Task: structure prediction
Amino acid sequence: MQKPSFRSLDNVLQDNSSGLSRIISQASLMAALRETVAKLLPDDHRAHLHGVSLKEDQSLILLTESAAWASRFRYLEPTVRPGLKTKTGLTISRVIIKVRPPAKPTFTGSV
Result:
């Protein structure tokens, strides 16, 4: 039986053909997009933007924690779409707001 070969973590992360490097690259792009979108929002809305995603059809998905905040974000679509076009060159076909309540921390240890 042949021993498995192991590669260093640096080699895996620097290998552009690996799935891991594509995931890291995609996460980095989404973090940059989230930061750009956050800068387009009013100050009081920024803490309620929990994530962004860009679909293949150029739909922008914004994640927030409640239906109330989702309604507020919907009113900002006319600002977000042209703002992203100006800042990044992205032409957004539509903005989709999804409600994702934040995960509640589970603490199983003793105090």
Summary: Residues 80 and 86 are 10 Å apart (CA to CA).
